[in-house]
User: Which sequence fits this backbone?
């Protein structure tokens, strides 16, 4: 089969699978978050937590629970990493140094999974399963909980109540993430991913060389790492490692896992606000941006205009033979646009302009389709901004889903979308200004600048992938990127929950002839344009210095 | 707001983290391991490959095929370049950009070396033969890279090119399900088959 045809079939198969699954999964998630019944195991968990699962929370209580849970998570993970050498299953690895432990703890709790360590030479099995993988589950469940709280803000009237955080957290984990991850993990093992608790062993090859074949609970982590849009690989090579991603089928499965919840949540949203068409307008905007990115990167990687790629006869540097260019490009766009950050090919070695597309996918704010939960609330914030801009154009008070978008709401939405651009640009400027950026670059010229810009874009938008040539395990990068991840995750959550509370208190605005039809294709188009223009205007200068300069000079 | 509410929340958060750690950090990985080990034990342990009654590697992990001096051995099919020498405890790639001058120089140097080693013109050397993979332990090469090695491998082992050609054909895997990923040749499996033939 010819390569272009195979690429088209691969993308089509993925889209068909997502279309088939979004409906049952989206409806199921809506039912999970709306149900009044508790499973027996959940009742047991609520008893352990000491929380009443039926008590409604207003935004301050909901926010307090989110922040407390995340703060405890950071602290627990930090301590676990600091003392891993004293614990069993450490494989003889030392304790993680303070700055790196801080960075890693924040990274996993904020659903970023930026990794300044190399898994196979730093993390023992206990730290991986008992610390990192746990946050893969719960940080994803926290994101979904906040998204659902915002949806309830739209769906409910004249109440300030947003649901119960503990219930949302536990249900997201137990009823949504766990079953899908368990199933996917077993399928991955069937395809060749490893799943054991061995420390690995040495083999003597036919030529007499010694090779250390590693062991570990890889598949269980791989499944939730992608499903929860986390991205922290068991190994340094992440999903390029054959033990994490053994063949073309596992590759497509992992891409599917990255996308399935983010692309299904708009259906959940539509169900919960009582109009699935509202959800489709959102998912259409997400899908258009994602598909445009996939096409752009796939074409660019096949064309491979970089001088080294031209000399090599193709852009295969940093790519695996079993995935090829199509499978690597599809993964790269899906992982950067879902805030996942797992990789099956090293983005640093992609063509200059492809790197630009990947960075742009992140600085859009991770909304196409974005991380689990965070993608939906990010896109809904963008929808609020869009409604506001459309309202200004025709001179009407903007409204969305029967809620007035007044001064308070638009201020909160604006604050939420300003957080990550501010962190990205200030962080990059600091690193370049203080010289730390230049010291850590692997590449020279504009590509070196792209490495630094990519790092801060990745951290502030909670993606976690890297132009990994940047030697980021320094005090400066561990600390500043850690702060970016922390603020980039939790500041928007604060604004989102306050906004949700404010929306939930409103009474319904009656629909009139002048109401903008937010369920129509026109609105999807406006939404895409707003997202692209906001990110474009903010990041054009920075992108010009890095990927554009590199791409246009080759 | 009195101070007891935040403290109560933190206490609840702590207990929630502990109980969810038990569920997702203990029960989940152990359950998956149990199922994986009983249903797919060979794969769950790393798809190890045996020769002469002992483990000689994993079919998923590439290896070096060097002689005693550490140079590529002409008797074996050679894998893609790897900066770590196929060390599974140091995975990752060069991280050099597509227009990087260092990478350009490496590519040109490697192309000349591969062409000379196999006795083929430089234009016949495919991209995967001169570029490092993402993991640095890529177990595969492209059929094109296997193809240009046939004559050299046959000569070094005293086999006919047709015999070696047939081995390569037998070990060329199509795209998965016909359209996923790329065509590829597993170097370890091919070399083990070659070893059988040579005896």
Assistant:
């Amino acid at each position: 089969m010819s390569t272009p045809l195979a690429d088209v079939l691969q993308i089509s198969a993925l889209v068909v699978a997502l279309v088939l699954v979004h409906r049952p999964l989206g409806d199921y998630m809506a039912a999970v978050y709306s149900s009044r019944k508790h499973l027996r195991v959940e009742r047991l968990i609520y008893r352990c937590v000491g929380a009443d699962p039926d008590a409604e929370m207003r935004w301050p209580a909901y926010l307090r629970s989110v922040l407390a849970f995340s703060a405890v998570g950071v602290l627990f993970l930090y301590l676990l990493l600091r003392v891993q050498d004293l614990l069993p299953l450490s494989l003889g690895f030392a304790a993680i140094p303070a700055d790196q432990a801080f960075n890693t703890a924040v990274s996993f709790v904020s659903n970023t999974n930026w990794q300044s360590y190399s898994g196979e030479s730093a993390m023992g099995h206990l730290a991986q399963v008992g610390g990192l993988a746990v946050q893969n589950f719960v940080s994803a469940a926290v994101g979904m909980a906040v998204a659902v709280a915002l949806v309830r803000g739209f769906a409910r009237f004249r109440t300030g109540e947003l649901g119960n955080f503990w219930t949302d957290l536990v249900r997201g984990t137990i009823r949504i993430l766990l079953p899908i991850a368990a199933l996917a993990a077993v399928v991955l093992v069937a395809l060749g991913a490893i799943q054991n608790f061995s420390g690995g062993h040495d083999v003597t090859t036919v030529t007499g060389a010694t090779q250390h074949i590693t062991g570990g609970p890889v598949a269980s982590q791989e499944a939730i790492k992608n499903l929860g849009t986390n991205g922290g690989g068991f190994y340094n090579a992440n999903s390029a490692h054959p033990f994490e991603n053994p063949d073309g089928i596992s590759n497509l499965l992992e891409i599917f896992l990255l996308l399935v919840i983010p692309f299904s949540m708009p259906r959940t949203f539509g169900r919960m606000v009582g109009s699935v068409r509202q959800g489709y307008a959102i998912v259409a905007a997400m899908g258009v941006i994602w598909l445009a990115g996939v096409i752009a990167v796939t074409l660019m990687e096949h064309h491979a205009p970089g001088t080294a790629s031209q000399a090599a006869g193709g852009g295969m540097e940093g790519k695996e033979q079993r995935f090829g260019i199509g499978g690597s490009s599809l993964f790269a766009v899906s992982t950067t646009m879902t805030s996942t950050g797992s990789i099956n090919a090293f983005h640093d070695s992609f063509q200059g302009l492809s790197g630009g597309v990947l960075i742009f996918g992140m600085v859009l704010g991770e909304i196409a389709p974005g991380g689990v939960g965070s993608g939906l609330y990010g896109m809904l914030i963008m929808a609020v901004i869009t409604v506001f801009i459309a309202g200004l154009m025709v001179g009407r008070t903007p409204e969305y889903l029967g809620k007035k978008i007044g001064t308070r709401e638009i201020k909160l939405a604006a604050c939420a979308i300003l957080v990550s651009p501010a962190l990205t640009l200030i962080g990059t400027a600091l690193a370049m200004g203080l010289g730390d950026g230049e010291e850590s670059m692997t590449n020279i010229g504009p590509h070196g600048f792209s490495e630094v810009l990519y790092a801060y874009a990745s951290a502030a938008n909670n993606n976690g992938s890297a132009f990994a040539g940047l030697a980021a395990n320094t005090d400066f990068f561990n600390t500043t990127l850690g702060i970016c991840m922390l603020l980039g995750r939790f500041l928007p959550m604060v604004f989102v929950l306050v906004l949700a509370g404010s929306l939930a208190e409103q009474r319904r605005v009656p629909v009139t002839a002048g109401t903008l039809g937010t369920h129509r294709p026109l609105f999807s188009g406006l939404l895409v344009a707003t997202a692209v223009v906001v990110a474009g205007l903010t990041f054009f200068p920075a992108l010009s210095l890095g990927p554009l300069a590199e791409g246009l000079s080759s | 707001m009195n101070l007891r509410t935040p403290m109560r929340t933190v206490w609840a958060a702590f207990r929630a983290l502990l109980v969810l750690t038990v569920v997702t950090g203990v029960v989940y990985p152990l359950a998956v391991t149990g199922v994986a080990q009983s249903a797919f034990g060979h794969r769950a342990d790393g798809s190890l490959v045996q020769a002469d009654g002992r483990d000689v590697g994993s079919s998923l992990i590439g290896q070096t095929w060097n002689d005693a001096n550490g140079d590529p051995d002409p008797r074996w099919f050679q894998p893609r370049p790897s900066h770590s020498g196929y060390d599974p405890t140091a995975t990752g790639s060069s991280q050099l950009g597509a227009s990087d001058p260092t990478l350009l120089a490496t590519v040109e140097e490697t192309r000349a070396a591969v062409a000379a080693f196999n006795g083929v013109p430089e234009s016949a050397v495919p991209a995967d033969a001169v570029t490092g993979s993402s993991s640095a332990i890529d177990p595969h090469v492209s059929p094109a890279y296997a193809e240009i090695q046939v004559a050299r491998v046959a000569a070094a082992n005293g086999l006919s090119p047709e015999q070696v050609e047939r081995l390569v054909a037998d070990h060329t895997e199509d795209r998965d399900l016909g359209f996923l990923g790329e065509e590829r040749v597993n170097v370890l499996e091919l070399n083990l088959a070659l070893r059988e033939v040579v005896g």
Summary: The two ends of chain B are 82 Å apart (CA to CA). Residues 155 and 161 of chain B are 8 Å apart (CA to CA). The mean pLDDT of chain B is 95.
